[in-house]
Amino acid sequence: MEVKRPIDYSIPRKKDCARYKMHKYWAGKPWYVVSEYIRHFTKEGGIVLDPFCGSGVVGCESLINNRKVILNDLNPMAVFISKNTCCSPVDLRAFLEEFEGIKDRIGEEIMTMYELEQLCPICGQRLYAKHIVRGPSQNGDWIVEARCRNSHGSKGKFRRYLTQREKQNIINIEKRDIL
Ligand SMILES: C[S@@+](CC[C@H](N)C(=O)[O-])C[C@H]1O[C@@H](n2cnc3c(N)ncnc32)[C@H](O)[C@@H]1O
Ligand SMILES: [Zn+2]
User: Fold this and answer.
1) C-alpha 147 to ligand 2 mean position (Å)
2) 136 preceded by cis ω (within 30°)?
3) Which one of 25, 122, 160, 175 is CB 3.0 to 4.6 Å from 55, fit for a cystine?
4) Which domains, and CATH codes, for the chain?
């Protein structure tokens, strides 16, 4: 196998891509860097193996660059995201119809799971958690990030510790049976 020299030039930043926004995945790699590596280190028609595929960026960029791919991940969520990101075409009309139906049936109930006690101090709009950071390094404190739906630029972004009640709400939700 021919070993190529490493990439020794900078890869200019490009905009985030809609295809990778289906679901947040921690440690998802920047698509334009992955794409450059694929073009540099592999040949068209070749096979790219990603045994820890996460959100499928390597898989999708490989396909776009006319390579074949084999993907694997321990996490079923990663497999689901990768499969649905890499396989096209998607019937967007059917997808939207299905989504609107689900939103009508359970949208409000789902949003209560993410609801925060605090209202937006700028416009009074209800705030919902965008994501929560928790783990052994947090010593039991959970950090929440939220963004007001009315935007307000960077002033509409909030990062703080969850209150005891908000934390308990999540603990209660996680104890529920999944039907
Ligand atoms: C850093 S993420 C990969 C992110 C990916 N490059 C992307 O752009 O989305 C690492 C992945 O390795 C998976 N993983 C960790 N240990 C594994 C194992 N033993 N077998 C398969 N997958 C594993 C995790 O579930 C996680 O999705
Ligand atoms: Zn607001």
Assistant:
1) 8
2) no
3) 25
4) 18-86 (3.40.50.150), 104-175 (no CATH)
